[in-house]
Each structure stands twice: as C-alpha cells, then as structure tokens.
Design brief:
The complex is a heterodimer of chains A (282) and B (254). With 282 residues, chain A is of the alpha+beta class. Chain A has one domain. Helix content of chain A is 18%, strand content 24%. In chain A, a hairpin with a 5-residue loop joins strand 9 and strand 10. The mean pLDDT of chain A is 96. Chain B is mainly β. In chain B, a hairpin with a 2-residue loop joins strand 1 and strand 2. Classes of the chains: A alpha+beta (282), B mainly beta (254). The complex binds zinc ion.
Chain lengths: 282, 254
C-alpha cells in the first residue's frame, strides 16, 4: 500500500491546519450526512427537510441514536448484501429492551414482516415494522460473537477486517452507558433464515438489491444498528454491503390506525405503550 | 368486559404445617392426586444434591465444571424455565441465538451445546428423554400475559417474577435476564413461521441431563403459567439432581 503521508503537507501548524480543514470537503461512500437533509438519497414520499437521521453505515460498521417516540426509521439495503442487526431500548429506562422471544411468541409468528411489533420484556411495543419489501429477516441467530467470528474468519478484532457483531454492539452500547450485561439477543434484517420441520435453520440470504424496512418508534428509543455478515452466511469471506439509515418524525401507532387493532395481542401491546407514555407525559 | 374469571374469595392452605386462610387469588396450582414419578439421575457419579422445586417456585444452584444436572419432570409436561451464567463472571450468560446459530437448529436435543453470549460452551445436553426441547418460547411474565391473555391476567404470578426474585439473591437484576430455555415445553415452528406453545411431549418421570462445561450458576422457574399448556394447566414439582463423577462432597448450593 502507498503511504497516506504522500497526500498531505503537514510540516508546520499552519500547513497541518490547512491540510485538516481541506479534508472536510471530501466524501465517503460510508458517512453520516449532517444536516440529515443533505442526504444524497431521500426515501420516496419523505420531506428532505424533515429528516433527523441520514447515514450510510460501512460494511462491518455500526451506528446508534436516541430517537423520539413516533420517529419513523427506514433501513435500506442498496446492494442486497447488507445485514442490519438491531437492538432497541426504552431510552428512558434501559432495563426495558428488545425481547426476541416475546417478539415472536406473542404474535404467534417467527418471521418478521410489516405489522410485526418489536416487543420488550415488559409487555410493551417498543417499535413496529410499518413497511417491508424484503421479507428476508431473522429472529433466531442473533449476531456473531468473537468466538464464532474468529472460528470462521480468523479474526474478530474491532480494528481488523472482520469485526464481530457483538464487539460492534458493545461499542455502540458503551456510548449510552450500557455494557455487555445490557445486550439481549438481536434481530437482523435483509438476510433471512427459515426453520425446517426438524428444526434445522436454513440460510435464505437476501431478497436482492434495493429492499427496505421501515419501523416506527412506539416509545423513545435507543437504537443500536450493526452491519456485519449474518452468522449463517455461508461465504468464506467477510462480504457485507453498505446499509443506509434514514429517520424522520411521525406518530406512534394510535387508535384509528388499522395497525392499532391488527391483532388482539398487538392491540394490548399498544395500549400498554400508550399507558406508559401518558403517565410520563410523553 | 363481559365476564370476570374470579371474585374475591377466601381459601385455606396448609402453610408451614398450619391452616392459613387467605384472600390471595388462587392461581395456577397443583391438582391433588396427579401422578408423580420421581426418577433418579440421568448421569453417572455421586449424587451431591437432590432437591425438589415446589410448583410455582424459583430455584438456583451453582454447579462445578464436570457436574451434571438432571431435571426430572416429575408430573409431566411441567416447563422448567432455565437460565445459566458463568459462575465467576455473570456478564457471560446463556445466549439463545449463539446456541441456535452454532448448532444450526432451532431445537435442543442430546448433544446440544448451551453457548454463552461470548459463543463459549456453558453446558452440554448429555441426556434427553423427550423428542426436542424448547429455547425459543421465552419466559412468561405478568406483563406479557396482558398481551397474550388480557389485562385480567396481570396479577398472576409468572416466570419473570421468579427469575427476578431468584436472580436478586445472586446480585443480578432485570439487566441480567435474557431469553431462556424451557425444558419439557413444546414450541413447534410451522412452515409459514407460525409458532406457539402447544401440548407437551413429556410425561411423568421424563428427564433431561445437562453437564456443566465451566462453573455455572443455574436459575430455574417452575413455571406458574395458568393460561397455556406449558405445564398442562397443572403445576407439578421438578426434581433437581446434581451428580459429580469425581467428588464426594456437595456443591456450593445456592
Ligand atoms: Zn412461565
């Protein structure tokens, strides 16, 4: 590799400052867009100026943010090779967090899709999937550990070419004062898994390039998103594509929305979330 | 609401050898006279612990590496909700997804390795007398009961209550509860992804044996659910046997 120093003149403070400032004009395939309205891509039907989060997450990267109740969160897989591992917490009481078992047991359905809630262990909907053009998701395998990542790729170091999903979640969690104790099993979007009659987990992979998932925050959330290969990805190499994230303000699922009464179970989950929100004057 | 499932009434229980009258609602309970089968250990070695978990109750114990826990489903189809931690660093704890992804299967059977959130073996299923064991159904709770069965069930006892109460005895709390195993519970996943708790495949005296691969802390809830068949709507005891292939002395029982 050529030396990065070849591109820089930094032999004095003034030169170094000029060199640093000149770099800010550059762009990357993977970056947050600030302000969010400067995003190179805006989801159809969304007002550019309403965006509160716009970012392209690098392969092997992660992102995280605290979002308000009602926020719409859209994840895009432009190349068909992203894998968005997601954990959400109630931002006001982080003891309340995604509970994958309840998320599949209570709706009587293991495969995520539009209308599926992400439930906490406290009987509330933290988020709801409001749109899904992929249908290839997973609630069984979580994310990769250092142990499994090292076995598969030879390294799981955060600074290396094949970071584990858990190591990424740990860094994202740490930035909100959370630790490994706080990381529950995650769900993943864009790389599907199906359960065979004998229980075998079959890797379905991607639905192709250009799919997206949209969620709505039913409570204020800490969102952690990690973009690493799915644990069952059969490829020998660590090949994951970029992941695009957009968010904009909206309303949680409220009475009058058909989703509010889509099933009796989800209806009571929304009633519980609203009960919590109203008592806290959210 | 058009009907209520209970009205305040007084019942009499035998508590510590005395008759106690109480207005606490009668929830899930043991049906007197149900057949019980107290089978022995499903592993060789010296029995260093032999305890019975009463219906509805929590339980915990520490096992040393190499020791095996046999759980006896004494009354049949009694879900034993189960969590396991590295005894020396409880930040390392059972992980459903690591366990499932590593073995490539959604059910637990003989040979299944119970992996931690670090991907490491905590325990191994060394014996199993039912077709498959569940680890995707999670634990019941007062809170989730409101979603599953309605707000009228919120006052009922649940496994999450048991887990929290027992975890607190070890300095653990809500942050430490993760998705669990349900020994003797049956949660099929159908081709379209539909899943749910259905009638069990166990019977009185059926057993599972799990060998500790490191020193572990095990926390169990003898499931008090009264709204689904995870315990056949009849709460029966669990017998917990720890065998040690090497030692004569007992474990550091919690
Ligand atoms: Zn239970």
């Amino acid at each position: 590799m050529t030396s990065i120093a070849d591109d820089h003149q930094t032999d004095s403070v003034l030169a170094a400052r000029a060199d640093a400032r000149a770099q800010a004009e550059r762009t990357s395939e993977y970056m947050p867009y600030r302000p969010a309205s400067s995003s190179p891509v805006v989801p159809e039907g969304v007002d550019r100026d309403a965006l509160v989060w716009a970012e392209t997450v690098a392969p092997g990267g992660y992102t995280h943010k605290v979002i308000a109740r009602g926020t719409r969160l859209r994840l895009d897989d432009p190349t068909g090779s992203a894998c968005a591992h997601v954990v959400v917490f109630n931002a006001l009481e982080t003891n309340e967090r995604l509970n994958v078992a309840d998320t599949i047991k209570i709706p009587w359905q293991a495969y995520l899709g539009a209308g599926h809630p992400l439930l906490s262990g406290d009987g509330r909907a933290l988020a709801t999937i409001t749109a899904d053009t992929s249908g290839h998701h997973d609630t069984f395998c979580g994310t990769s550990s250092d142990e499994s990542t090292t076995a598969k790729y030879g390294s799981a170091a955060p600074e290396g070419p094949s970071p584990s999903g858990r190591s990424r979640f740990l860094l994202a969690a740490a930035k909100h004062g959370l630790t490994g104790r706080d990381l529950p099993p995650s769900v993943s979007f864009f790389q599907g898994v199906r359960v065979e009659p004998d229980g075998a987990l079959t890797f379905l992979g991607s639905a192709g390039a250009g799919t997206h998932v949209e969620l709505v925050a039913e409570l204020p959330l800490i969102v952690l998103i990690v973009n690493v290969p799915h644990p069952l990805d059969p490829a020998d190499d660590y090949l994951v594509g970029p992941l695009t994230v957009h968010a904009w303000p909206g309303e949680p699922t409220l009475p009058g929305d058909p989703q509010f009464t889509a099933t009796p179970e989800v209806n009571r989950a929304y009633l519980n979330s609203i009960d919590y929100a109203e008592a806290r004057a959210l | 609401m058009s009907t209520t499932t209970s009205t305040t009434s007084t019942t009499t229980h035998t508590v510590a050898g005395h008759a106690l009258r109480t207005t606490v609602p009668v929830g899930a309970h043991y049906v007197e006279g149900s057949p019980l089968e107290n089978a022995g250990p499903l592993a060789s070695g010296t029995v260093v612990l032999d305890e019975t978990v009463a219906p509805l109750a929590p339980w915990s114990a520490r096992l040393l590496a190499g020791q095996t826990l046999t759980i006896v489903d004494v009354g049949g189809n009694q879900s034993a909700d189960f969590l396991v931690y590295n005894a020396h660093d409880t930040d390392e704890r059972y992980s459903v997804p690591d366990t499932l992804a590593w073995q490539g299967n959604a059910y637990l059977r003989e040979g299944s390795v119970l992996r931690s959130n670090l991907g490491r073996p905590l325990m191994t299923v060394t014996g199993n007398e039912i077709d498959r064991q569940d680890t995707i159904g999670g634990a019941c709770s007062k809170e989730s009961n409101t979603l599953r069965y309605g707000f009228h069930t919120e006052h009922q006892h649940g496994c999450r209550e048991n887990f929290l109460a027992e975890a607190a005895r070890h300095g653990l709390g809500a942050r430490d509860l993760v998705s669990n195993i349900n020994w003797f519970m049956n949660v099929p996943v159908e081709p379209d992804g539909a899943l749910g708790i259905v009638d069990g495949m166990s019977a009185p005296g059926k057993r599972v044996a799990i060998r500790a691969e490191m020193d572990v802390l095990v926390i169990v809830s003898n499931c008090p659910q009264m709204n689904n068949p995870c315990n056949d709507f009849n709460c029966t005891p669990l017998r917990m046997l720890v065998t040690d292939p090497l030692r004569e002395t007992g474990p550091d029982n919690a």
